[in-house]
Specification:
The complex is a heterodimer of chains A (352) and B (246). Chain A has a domain of 215 residues. A two-stranded antiparallel ribbon of chain A has the order 1-2. Chain A is mainly α and 352 residues long. Chain A is 72% helix and 1% strand. The radius of gyration of chain A is 21 Å and the shape is globular. Chain A has 17 helices and two strands. Chain B is an alpha/beta fold and 246 residues long. Chain B has a domain of 161 residues: Rossmann fold. In chain B, 37% of the residues lie in helices and 25% in strands. The chains are: A mainly alpha (352), B alpha/beta (246). At the A-B interface, helix 11, helix 12 and helix 17 of A face helix 2 and helix 3 of B.
Chain lengths: 352, 246
């Protein structure tokens, strides 16, 4: 056993959850990538995009304690903003004729487009959050839900920019497993650093007791707004990745279904832990993949009806809420496995 | 924390402060000036308006009329966090710790919100916890502390970044005599150590008489007496207010 008392080891211990999560995902990506299983590779990329979304949800929900039903709206905003810059250069005028001349005639590099998509989502979050983040508790949650429906309805009817109820097709499928992995790690690092920062600490205090947080000098509204904007930025980037994974976009895919599945992942893993966010995505993606295969009759004699996966996920979430609200991880991060651990969790064990 | 206070002339003033809820005047034209370096007791029967007055002085409740002034400047329009940043801190009757966070972070929150980096805030928090004899509890989640320690952490959180004034809402409620002695020692040390003015709400007369140089008595929102502990104790109006309510 190693005592964590050299500077290097102390640094390693501080960032241990980051190291473990990145390595764990690296192994999964490497295995799936070399297996050659096409369906599994699709599940993997989708899972990596969802890690970006769920890490962003953790950043806001885990630290503020406010459940947001609105973040998929930011995913959609990012997805379309990215499509405006990268989609089908020769037919863009056909799908989205209302775009400004600059966007009709110019394409941006994938990385820049994704970044700008995230930035647009962040700006929209800043404006809408300026109103909604004044609310607390269930009112704030319902406010985010209303916000999602506002975005959804606008994009559904804004056909000259979004193709409306039909699809935008012809996006380059740039989101490979390794691109997805890179962005998943970026989101994990971002969420981790935010949570460790003074802003993350201040926001968590308002989660535990809003009145006491104000008495301690915390600008609760400001801290919530900051987290809302940062998480919307990551959600917007995830939207860009999603479009370039499917190669097409429909407004319909950014509704309640995606909201439900990503929130379920966070709840399953443990809402107040980044490790929980990642574990929730991995476990649920894996289970859904198996169920989809069964739905498609992969095992003869066991043909599950379509939508079995949704039913299954719904039941799992109800069970989690009934029996283990802190999720699979118990709201803890990955433990430092060596001696010299003086973290809160081990101190709690000593106390009890 | 050892450097001395630069000025002793700061004041926290309630000027004709009234707080009215529908049909009820919780605080009725109360006047008081708290000076840096002193300990002022605020007593009165249950429902006298003591906590409401503290709420009004810390931005949690806007006065219906009257003003709260910090060294002559009106602060009653500011937000609670804005008032905390100007150096007026408070504790709560129920403790209201951040229960899921470690004890050290409970104190760090105040320090980072007032401008410290996390590293500096941690060192500052440990210094305060050390003073209160809680340094060995620093990594324990605040929610599992016994209530005596809970109150101390609340006091440490309020004293982070050396506020000019600290308003303590019943820090000794429900404590045994022995535990009260500890809290009294802590309260007595606050002006010496931090140079701030202390307003102490307390039901325990032993605590009030033991640490306060000056006492303000409220009953049904109105000031009924002000003076030294001996003066107040022998005031027939005060005696009547307490007997009449109990």
């Amino acid at each position: 056993m190693i005592e964590a008392n050299t500077p290097l080891l102390r640094l390693l211990r501080t960032y241990w959850p980051l190291v473990m999560l990145s390595l764990g995902l690296l192994i999964i990506v490497a295995i799936v990538d070399s297996s050659g299983d096409v369906i599994l590779a699709q599940t993997l990329i989708e899972g990596l995009v969802r890690i970006v979304i769920v890490a962003a949800l953790y950043l806001f929900i885990g630290n503020s304690g406010i459940i947001s039903f609105g973040h998929i709206g930011f995913v959609m905003i990012g997805a379309y903003a990215t499509a405006w810059q990268t989609c089908c250069p020769y037919t863009r005028e056909m799908f989205m004729p209302g775009l400004p001349v600059y966007l009709l005639n110019n394409s941006h590099h994938f990385v820049l487009a994704i970044f700008l998509g995230g930035l647009l989502a962040a700006v929209v979050a800043l404006i809408s959050g300026y109103a909604i983040m004044r609310l607390s508790g269930i009112a704030a949650s319902i406010g985010t839900f209303a916000l999602m429906m506002v975005f959804y309805s606008i994009y559904l009817r804004w056909s000259t920019w979004t193709s409306g109820a039909s699809s935008v097709i012809g996006l380059p499928t740039t989101t490979t497993p390794w691109v997805g992995y890179a962005y998943a790690v970026v989101a994990i690092v971002g969420a981790f650093l935010y949570s460790r920062s003074k802003w993350g600490l201040a926001l968590r205090s308002s989660r535990d007791d809003e009145v006491a947080a104000k008495a301690a000098g915390v600008n609760v509204f400001g801290q919530r707004l900051l987290a809302f904007v940062v998480s919307a930025f990551f959600c917007g980037m995830a939207g860009g990745l999603f479009g370039h994974f499917l190669g097409m976009l429909t407004v319909d895919s950014f509704g309640l279904g995606m909201t439900f599945i990503t929130l379920s992942m966070l709840v399953l893993g443990g809402m107040q832990s980044l490790t929980g966010a990642v574990v929730g995505v991995v476990v649920l993606s894996f289970l859904i993949d198996i169920l989809r295969r069964l739905e498609n009759g992969m095992v003869s004699g066991l043909n599950l009806p379509t939508s079995s996966a949704e039913v299954f996920v719904g039941i799992v979430i109800i069970l989690i809420l009934m029996f283990r609200q802190s999720g699979i991880t118990g709201n803890q991060e990955v433990y430092w496995p060596f001696k010299g651990d003086v973290s809160a969790s081990s101190a709690m064990k000593r106390q009890s | 924390m050892s450097d001395t206070v630069n000025s002793n002339r700061q004041t926290l003033e309630a000027r004709q402060v009234s707080v009215r809820f529908e049909g009820l005047t919780a605080v009725d034209t109360v006047e008081e000036t708290l000076h840096q370096g002193e300990i002022l007791g605020l007593i009165g029967p249950n429902g006298a308006g003591k906590t409401t007055l503290v709420n009004a002085m810390t931005g949690f409740q806007a006065p219906s009329s009257g003003d709260v002034l910090l060294s002559g400047k009106v602060i009653s329009k500011l937000t609670p966090h804005g008032i905390r940043r100007r150096g007026i801190a408070r504790t709560f009757q129920a403790g209201r710790l951040f229960r899921e966070m470690p004890v050290s972070e409970n104190v760090e929150v105040a320090a980072v919100s007032l401008g410290y980096s996390r590293r500096k805030a941690h060192a500052h928090a440990m210094e305060l916890l050390n003073w209160l004899g809680l340094d060995d509890r620093a990594d324990v989640p605040a929610g599992i502390l016994p209530y005596t320690d809970e109150r101390r952490v609340g006091i440490a959180r309020a004293l982070a970044m050396r506020p000019q004034f600290v308003l303590l809402d019943e820090p000794a409620a429900g404590m045994s005599d022995l535990e009260c002695d500890d809290i009294m020692q802590v309260v007595r040390e606050i002006p010496e150590r931090f140079g701030c003015g202390v307003l102490l709400i307390e039901h325990n007369m032993r605590v009030i008489m033991g640490v306060c140089a000056r006492i303000h008595v409220l009953d049904s929102g109105k000031t009924i007496a002000r003076g030294t502990p001996t003066e107040v104790q022998n005031d027939p109006v005060v005696i009547n207010a307490y007997l009449g309510h109990s």
